[in-house]
Amino acid sequence: MNPQVPQLIASDVCLNCPVCCRFPEKQSPLSPFFFPEERAEIEHLQLPSNFFRDSSSETKAALTTCQHGYQCSFFHHADHTCQIYHARPLDCSIYPVVVMWNPNQTGILIGLDTKCPEIQSEKESTRIPAYLDWIQNYLEQPLKSQLIASHLSFVAPFQEEVILTRPLSIQKGN
Ligand code: SF4
Ligand code: SF4
Question: How far is CA 165 from each of CA 52, 65, 114, 158, rounded to the nearest angstrom?
């Protein structure tokens, strides 16, 4: 469903990172969201149904306990890989870019999540504005923005740790 989104952080860095795919709470609102088409694609892989948090078509990945709290059920703790890497959802493939509500929940923002340790060293990089432009243009394409507008559970809660935020022209009820 998603074309290959260019990655901001090199995969060899991510494979040695202790952050992504792990969460502090079992019902974390930041766990990955799957649009119905994304979930259907995973279900074709015939993985056990308990990889998802509920039985509805639009859903989040179930989280399982791990030594750091909870991890996405698609995460392989031993080698830090994603079992569904080539079919992982948009939510994961754009990270450390985050799509979230503004503080008043009146509009949608994108920005960079400083929970990613690489962002501290990357945030002044000249490639950051171009990368955010690419993601913004991609998400604002008519089909993608309509998809997001009709599945607003994709939009994460406001997070103060997200920096370099900019508005995304997707309206509630588009
Ligand atoms: S937190 Fe950043 S560096 Fe770590 S795995 Fe995620 S994107 Fe990669
Ligand atoms: S779907 Fe894959 S990339 Fe996304 S949180 Fe789960 S393990 Fe990580």
Answer: 30, 32, 12, 11
